[in-house]
Design goal:
The structure is a homodimer.
Chain A lengths: L17 H4 L22 E3 L1 H7 L4 E6 L9 H14 L4 E4 L4 H12 L3 E7 L5 H9 L3 E5 L3 H14 L2 E3 L5 H7 L1 H10 L5 E5 L4 H15 L8 E7 L4 H4 L21 H10 L3 E5 L1 H15 L5 H12 L9 E6 L7 H7 L4 E5 L3 H8 L2
Parallel strand pairs in A: 2-10, 3-4, 3-6, 4-5, 7-8, 7-10, 8-9
Antiparallel strand pairs in A: 1-2
Helix pairs in contact in A: 3-4, 3-7, 4-5, 7-9, 8-9, 9-11, 12-13
């Protein structure tokens, strides 16, 4: 595989965050107060082991979006949602998320001088899952009710008080997320042939498609990728064509039974001649381990579904094609998963002699 | 505070990793095989709340090096150490670290097709601390002996087998780490007035000073910063002028009693007219919480010592000065610390009525 990332003269550029970088493509004005942690500009890492597994001169790149400030791609949408909330005079923001969204919402809201509220059902969520959001200063309200009722409360609060909803219904989230596509094109010089992406609420595949289309119209790329969306087999409503009542998968970040962006995701797939596929938890874990122990890239299990999908579909990739896989979250977000699924050697009680240690190491 | 990061035309640059970016300043040749995860190019985030606390037109920037691929600044040194090990024909690398170094060593070694060995004393280390390294494919050998004896074994293995030592004795580590200084100058357009940095083994302050001096000699900046090094009060040999037998601090990444780069760190301080100071665990925790809940930046406790030090020394900063604080690791590296020290509200059992929730929120 040939690297297209070489030979020129580089230096560390003063990256101003994704809103400043892509201002002309985003719904902001010169008076919008920009709340940024300099998110975006994440590495597009050439993958050698995946390219080798596929063969036929296919190039594979990993968009490592877990290297955003709070550790997930949610920062892309949140810099937009929080900046617009501040512009509109909100004093607080609110969501019903328990994972990456709540962490991103808390970090950006506090940076912007607003209060971040997280509403969850009582007894539903382990404290560990919320630790990051709490440290960022999220104020958590656990209500006596289920998750749907928590969502209902969140909407009513946003309707009746100077509080902005920043869950996936907030339209600015997708505007921010589409910049991931811009960055891929800026670095590769064109759109890839395939874009492999995990689907939960299906907002990210929708946003990437928006981004590619907008860049295409602006003349920044002269082709569009096939949008290849992957879901966990136990939470695959978009693959099966119907909602899943009790979604189950180890990939918690995409454990969603009735995606918010269902129609838009299907439209992206159809317009791009892409396709949707399910990957099993075993396939996700296999990809998770390959990424860590062969590429040196540690991601959330949900992120690994894009690579699991790529490996599943590898015989359908055209010879010489360029493929980009999106990794949405850093592996450090889910330390328990790493503890359970590391499969390397741990030898205990080894005698402290060089020849014994050498033998234990296979020398 | 005025942002110097604005107004120009940006796009996402194809960042090739720090060795390619700074090749002319590093001991690599055209035949050195570069093992990279596109580390470096980390954000230099303007800090508003710290600048406000200091006043007097002082500008403060946070170099968020926790956004390197494995979550810490160790990646800067490791891309160099592993690339050189590969060039020299090593089949394996070895270290006795249990924290960020072992994770970085494992990720880069596996990406470079080498085996990463980690030698630790039996029963000394919790599995959780090593989970990231194990998932990356580190092979751990726990020996019947103490930590010094583990270090002895590591050195003997490196002397007698085709195994490269990648702990802090490896000289290429500092070469890679000095690029942090290059990036600061590239983004600011000059060196800052103060550089605030945590000190454990004191390799990073040594490396930053090397970098600033080299860039100064190359005409890339026309001044040099005062090097302000900070240690935890319970592990402050450089401040007290003598080794600490039993170093104690919550900032585990700088819990070191006898720093490897002692002499070089003192030389950097003296040459730059800087100074060393101790900060208490309470001051470190306070900075850790301010960074998260006011700036939206989540770091390891050890990282927060640079900000704790800045706040401690704030009255000595010249009016109008530019200060850069180095945050060496991402907060997600230490989730237990976040769980213990989040101090925001968590209200349980709230009745599911809008007016009740609104009251709970203070509306």
């Amino acid at each position: 595989m040939t690297l297209s990332l070489s030979a020129e003269k580089y230096q560390c550029q003063p990256w101003p965050g994704l809103i400043e970088a892509y201002r002309e493509y985003l719904p902001v004005s010169t008076t919008t107060p920009i709340v940024t942690l300099l998110e975006g500009n994440t590495p597009l890492i050439p993958s050698f082991t995946l390219a080798e597994r596929i063969g036929r001169q296919v190039s594979v790149y990993i968009k490592y979006d877990g290297l955003n400030p709070t550790g997930s791609f949610k920062d892309r949408g949140m810099t937009m949602a929080i900046s617009k909330a501040k512009e509109e005079g909100a004093k607080a923001v609110i969501c019903a998320s328990t994972g990456n969204t709540s962490a991103a919402a808390a970090a950006y809201a506090r940076r912007g001088g607003m209060r971040p509220f997280v509403v969850i059902p009582d007894g539903y969520v382990a404290l560990g899952k919320l630790a990051q959001a709490l440290l960022y200063g999220a104020e958590v309200i656990a209500i006596r009710g289920n998750f749907d009722q928590a969502l209902g409360v969140v909407r009513q609060m946003a309707d009746n008080y100077p509080i902005t909803l920043v869950n996936s219904l907030n339209p600015y989230r997708l505007e921010g997320q589409k910049t991931g596509a811009f960055e891929v094109v800026d670095v590769l010089g064109n759109a890839p042939d395939w874009l492999c992406i995990p689907m939960g609420n299906a907002g990210n595949i929708t946003a990437y498609w928006m981004g590619f289309c907008q860049y295409f119209q602006a003349g920044k790329c002269d082709r569009l990728p096939k949008m290849m969306g992957f879901q966990a087999a136990g939470a695959a409503p978009l693959v099966n064509g119907q909602p899943v009542t009790k979604p189950e998968t180890i990939a918690t970040a995409i454990r969603i039974g009735n995606p918010a962006s269902w129609g838009k995701a299907v439209a992206a797939k159809d317009a791009s001649q892409g396709s949707f596929h399910a990957v099993t938890d075993a396939e996700i874990l296999n990809a998770y381990q390959i990424l860590a122990s062969e590429e040196g890239i540690f991601c959330e299990p949900a992120s690994a579904s894009s690579v699991a999908g790529l490996l599943k579909m590898k015989d359908e990739i055209p010879t010489g094609a360029t493929v980009v896989c999106i990794l949405t979250g850093h592996g450090l977000k889910d330390p328990e998963m790493a503890m359970k699924h590391g499969n390397s050697q741990f030898q205990k009680g080894v005698e402290m002699k060089v020849e014994v240690v050498a033998k234990a190491m296979g020398f």
